[in-house]
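HUMAN: Now follow token order:
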Amino acid sequence: MDLTVKSENNVAFMVEGIKGKLKVVAAQSIKADHFDIEKYEDLLDMYEVVMSKQHFSISEIEALCDELRLLKK
């Protein structure tokens, strides 16, 4: 998958990857169509950070979830 291309499919792929890696309790409430394609680069940056880490502290998960909320439409 070429994540350098802005697309709804790539947004969905990244959102699902982030949810899976963070193991968020309320993951059902996070949907790809909640995110604005105009914030694609920010979402890509977050995706790369999340995928590069093996473990997250509770405070890191909370901060990343807060950031996801800011990226929503």
